[in-house]
Design brief:
Order of helices and strands of chain B: EEHEEHHHEHHHEHEHEHEHEHEHHEEEE
Number of strands of chain B: 15
Order of helices and strands of chain A: EEHHHHEHHHHEHEHEEEHEHEHHEE
Number of helices of chain B: 14
Oligomer: heterodimer
Strand order of the largest sheet of chain A: 4-3-5-7-1-8-12-11-9-10
Helix content of chain B: 25-40%
Helix content of chain A: 25-40%
Shape of chain A: globular
Number of helices of chain A: 14
Chain lengths: ~350, ~425
């Protein structure tokens, strides 16, 4: 039994822009429509939203609307699986850095005991929870009443494929009838700081905020599409050597022909041009998520699949490939098909 | 679809009580406790002076590695633990991994949150600040100049599974699971699924974490999870005791080799334990606290039991999460009591966190390694520091026991209400 896609939802910053992150990184003010509207019927409680990133608030509101639109019954939530890919655990890197700068002030205190006491005082009481890796998943579970199998994956864009890996396994192993999966990404200087030395600096790192989710189910009834193939390039990545550029043509040799390819993975314009060239001829039509949105990190693959389903729904294609390529050279691929009556 | 059975064939552990699998049994038998004065950072002026720290110098395990690996290890304790554990296990694990094709073996690890050792760079940071620059960013720009996929400081979580995958040539997948205290338990559970469903024949699973740094200890201390201790304290973690005050900060790295039944047969392997079932659930209650009703903790147990197809009364022993915190221990025992009913007074229960501390993301792999070891040696560890049990009518182990276990259950719970259980069967039964 191959899994079916019941529906999908994604959320992009209202004033859409991709950020060019380099040494002089700026923070994004994305998702303010959601964060600035505490009266929204699905806005999280104030005590919770204090320790939520904007992508988490946006995810909760959009997913609550999504569940309401689909009319998902309470009993379907209880055993629903939940798989989330997260990249960034600090929304405002600059605020984090300001905290570190406060610590610097204590370096001038010569007495170690006094220094430690000041440091302890500076530490926000909920800092352990603010940086909790599984906070998106746990908050989504809390607000949508989901209690099933679960996991949070991180951190490169490959994690956006891992959630499909886990969700598909749950359907195949009959561990769940429904799986909610996806990822959220915050464009801030976090990944720029991680990776600035791996790419030509003058081009920076083009990234955007995004949250995208899909609901999988184990049956065809009222499904929008089906996941028919899932595959990676089986690469053993390296920490020492930069990855060889993948041979996409070879990768696609073993796969069925597709009508369209939706792809992501580039980090900057030159990288994108190279990817376009390498993928040329794979499908009659191509859609580059990078071109439209920039890199969406842990939301890459789920956004690709959302776009693939949109194409199928618009009768523009019957069989669409969704491909992502990560920083370490790992290629992940899902094939999405129209559901035959 | 025919589901493959899954077996544990080997494991390695670096823990405050044992450096390597071979030391685990003796450490448990002798009630070795890892708690002592913190030495890895200056605790003067802090309220928390002890932890279960790994005191052994780990450099000998990786001093033959590339300079960038050594430099990263010196700045990132978690990576140092992963590398040391992998290097310790390498020769033994390779006897299994070398027999399996690259695209049929994967890695899934549970990883904890990254912390940069700011105090090490005190002078650098001050210099940048005096120059009017942003000190933290400049620090990263200065030190992450290797032009490699690995940074000296502040790396993505992916580096851990990638290091292990490179060591054992695992190409099928490399996943990092980030669910706090259930990370490595869930890594184990997802590895079990990947083999069952036929995506891999072998998975190296486990995890790594350390919360022995000022930031983590103070953060957990402020949440009331870690008690105040003076530097002479050696038994602060009173798991399942009425007078418990909190958990013991710990660190660990562990790796386990899971293989399919067909791999066991084709390689003529002798498995140590069968992985019978795994169950996960979400409280969906509050980020700050577990659901006091224990409803979804029991749901994870229910899912495990349903998958196992055994009777509840077949379970001999529970390796509990048992953190020594006010909230966890009561809810956990109440949940066991309600789920097991009459069998709750018979099933043997202990937690070993009073010995090795709470290794957060590595808690699961540390405790699953200990459970496997106990199955090998027909041994059950006591709740070492428990003097006044929360419940007298439950079988909370008071003294170490020499006893065969057929079915042993491990459970871990995480902040944010994540519940994960694993059921193992002794293959010598």
């Amino acid at each position: 039994m191959k899994p079916f896609i019941k529906d999908f939802v994604y959320v992009l910053p209202e004033e859409y822009e991709t950020l060019h992150l380099s040494k002089l990184a700026n923070e994004t003010g994305s998702f303010s429509k959601f964060t600035n509207d505490p009266k929204h019927p699905f806005h999280p409680k104030r005590s919770d939203s204090k320790i939520m990133r904007a992508d988490v608030i946006a995810s909760i509101i959009k997913l609550s609307e999504f569940f309401e639109r689909l009319g998902i019954r309470e009993e379907e939530h209880l055993d629903m699986s939940l798989y989330i890919a997260n990249a960034c655990f600090l929304e405002e890197t600059n605020r984090y850095i300001e905290r570190i700068n406060k610590i610097l002030d204590t370096f001038t205190i010569e007495d170690k005991e006094s220094q430690a006491k000041v440091l302890y005082k500076y530490l926000p009481p909920l800092s352990a929870l603010e940086t909790l890796n599984n906070s998106t998943m746990s908050f989504v579970a809390q607000y949508l009443n989901i209690h099933g199998n679960n996991s949070t994956y991180g951190t490169s864009s490959y994690s956006s494929y891992m959630v499909f890996h886990a969700g598909i396994n749950d359907i195949l192993l009959k561990q769940a009838n429904h799986v909610l999966l996806g990822g959220s990404n915050v464009a801030c200087s976090y990944s720029g700081l991680y990776n600035w030395n791996k790419f030509p600096e003058h081009q920076g790192w083009k990234e955007s905020s995004c949250a995208s989710y899909l609901l999988l189910q184990n049956h065809a009834e009222s499904a929008l599409a089906q996941i028919s193939t899932w595959k990676t390039n089986d690469l053993v990545p390296s920490l020492i050597h930069k990855p060889k550029y993948p041979d996409f043509k070879q990768f696609f040799k073993e796969l069925e022909p597709i009508d369209q390819l939706v792809y992501s993975g580039a980090y900057q314009d030159s990288d994108h041009e190279r990817m376009q060239e390498a993928l040329d001829g794979i499908a009659p039509e191509m859609f580059s998520c990078f071109d439209t949105f920039g890199n969406m990190g842990s939301s890459n693959m789920s956004m690709n699949v959302c776009k693939a389903v949109e194409l199928i729904q618009a009768d523009k294609a019957e069989r669409v490939g969704a491909l992502d390529y990560d920083l370490f050279g790992r290629v992940s691929y899902l094939e999405i098909q129209a559901v035959k009556p | 679809m025919k589901e493959e059975k899954v077996y544990i064939v080997d494991y390695e552990l670096i823990s405050p009580i044992a450096i390597g699998r071979a030391q685990i049994h003796t450490a448990l038998q002798n009630d070795v406790c890892g708690e002592s004065k913190i030495e890895s950072f200056d605790t003067r002026g802090l309220y928390f002076r002890t932890a279960a720290e790994i005191k052994t110098d780990l450099l000998p395990f990786y001093k033959h590695k590339e300079t960038i690996i050594q430099e990263t290890c010196s700045l990132d304790r978690k990576f140092e633990l992963t590398v040391a554990c992998t290097e310790m296990a390498k020769e033994r694990f390779k006897s299994y991994t070398d027999q399996v094709a690259q695209d049929r073996k994967g890695v899934i690890l549970g990883i904890g949150t990254d912390v940069v050792k700011l105090m090490v760079f005190q002078h650098d940071l001050m210099d940048f600040a005096l120059e009017g620059l942003n000190p933290y960013k400049e620090l990263i720009f200065k030190h992450n100049d290797s032009n490699r996929m690995l940074n000296k400081m502040w790396n993505p979580f992916d580096i851990h599974p990638i290091y292990v995958a490179e060591s054992f040539d695992c190409g099928a997948f490399q996943h990092s699971i980030l669910t706090a205290c259930t990370s490595s338990t869930q890594a184990f559970s997802k590895s079990f699924d990947a083999i069952r469903v036929g995506q891999a024949d072998l998975v190296v699973t486990g995890g790594t974490d350390s919360i022995i740094n000022a930031l983590a200890i103070c953060s957990f201390g402020k949440l009331g999870v870690i008690p105040e201790t003076d530097e002479l304290e050696s038994r602060s973690c009173l798991v399942f005791d009425k007078n418990r005050k909190g958990t013991l900060a710990g660190e660990a790295a562990g790796l386990m080799v899971l293989v399919s039944e067909s791999t066991v047969e084709s390689q003529k392997l002798t498995p140590l334990a069968e992985v019978v079932a795994c169950g996960n659930s979400l409280d969906g209650y509050k980020i700050t606290a577990p659901n006091p009703s224990g409803t979804y903790m029991r749901k994870a147990l229910e899912r495990t039991l349903k998958q196992s197809k055994i009777e509840l009364t077949d379970i001999d022993y529970i390796q509990a999460h048992g953190t020594g915190t006010r909230q966890n221990d009561n809810i956990e025992l109440d949940g066991i009591s309600e789920f097991f009913g009459d069998h709750a007074k018979d099933v043997l229960i202990s937690s070993t966190k009073d010995r090795h501390g709470h290794a957060i993301a590595a808690a699961g792999v540390q405790e699953l390694s200990i459970l496997t070891n106990c199955m090998e040696h027909d041994f059950l560890p006591s709740n070492m520091n428990m003097n006044t049990p929360i419940y007298e009518d439950m079988n909370l182990i008071k003294e170490n026991m020499n006893q065969h276990i057929t079915y042993g259950l491990n459970q871990n719970f995480a902040f944010g209400g994540v519940n994960s259980t694993v059921l193992l069967k002794n293959t010598r039964t």
